Amino acid sequence: MKTKLAVIAILASGALAAGAENTGGISCCMLRGLRESYRPTAAERALANAAAGASLDELAHTRASRNGADTYFSHKVESKGITDQKRSGRCWLFTGLNVLRSQMMAAHDLPELKLSQAHNFFYDQLEKSNLFLQSIIDSADKPMDDKRVDWLFRNPLSDGGQFTGLADNILKYGVVPASVMGETFSTDNTSRISSLIALKLREDGLELRKMKAEGKTDEEIQSRKEDMLKEVYRMLAMTMGEPVESFTWTRYDKKGKPVSTKTYTPLEFYKEYAGNDLKNDYVMLMNDPSRPYYKLYEIDLDRHVYDGDNWRYVNVPIEDIKEIAMESIKDSTMMYFSCDVGKFLDRDKGYLDPDAYDYESLMGVEFGMDKADRIRSYASASSHAMTLMAVDLDENGKPKKWMVENSWGSGANDGHLIMTDKWFDEYMFRLVADKKYAPKRVLDVLKQTPELLPAWDPLFSDEK
Q: What pTM value is reported for the model?
């Protein structure tokens, strides 16, 4: 009897295993096939032994790329001192202020100038808190599982950002020298204070939705929102210091002699030493091959200020971006630039090159997606902003490599990153340039009515 039952059990298990092949699960037969497919050669066994105790990046690092990098550039805008965002996601702010200070120093023949990131970051976090709270009020009639409401509660506050948010911030709050408002532990290390404010904002958001559901008046809701923002202001002031309303600053010449001493508001200082119309003088460009070129796009809620502007950009081929970038560099003008910096990065050399790491040979697997497919599948997106300031052209005027001023402090190449033109093609995404360097075919796109993209589009995670 036992033997007969055992035979039945074996037959039943075999039937279940065979049936599992049609359910989408991994059946016994499939698993057996997977195991049999792996028959490593002696060389592959040696690689597996090495991979067990070493970094895959180190094993995939090609021999040729270990040699010294060529640091010569035919066209270069000299940077004015490397900054360090430390353990914060403020690359967008450092990049924007680095571009701005370069222009301010050149226009006024200043020997040096360091601008305060803390000043603008304080107001950035305050404005983003208001953006969240007011957006919660605006969508309070929608259910919690509505896509927009869900996205808001998932993303109440970020230390990342983009150029349009920077423009709104500076044109409203101005800029100040770094000596006026210096860095604190919480501006250098933003995760804890940002997470605490985000926690409070989520709590506040639920309360505002409840007030709306209970039929409270708009005046009552707005008054309560202002009280909530007072708490945010308190948290920011305690950890970052309170921004000044005015300050006295002495300008020196290149010999170190004082030229003038004046009292400014932050906005007066910006207007006197920069004065750029950040909203109208620049064009925001994107290279997104997953969408049609020469179209204008806007990303919903991708802004820093509630009553400010969403990120709006012209999608163009990479060749157009290169043309504009080269013209700008040749005219000694740096640009706001962002990319997917983590791909094929050699930190020790400060070098970005897709040929520097051969993962395919190491793993015996082909990685075949192009840029458009990487965007569609969330495999690649803009992750970091830097200052584009050099290009090396060949005898035919074609770019061989590019250089950016980074905000990771001193390091390889004195804090700069060098990228091959091939890497630029694959992992560069955004460029902000003065309109005077853009051809008519690009500027004409600005006349279009933009196509509105949702905040959760795969390409628009905040830049860090």
A: 0.91
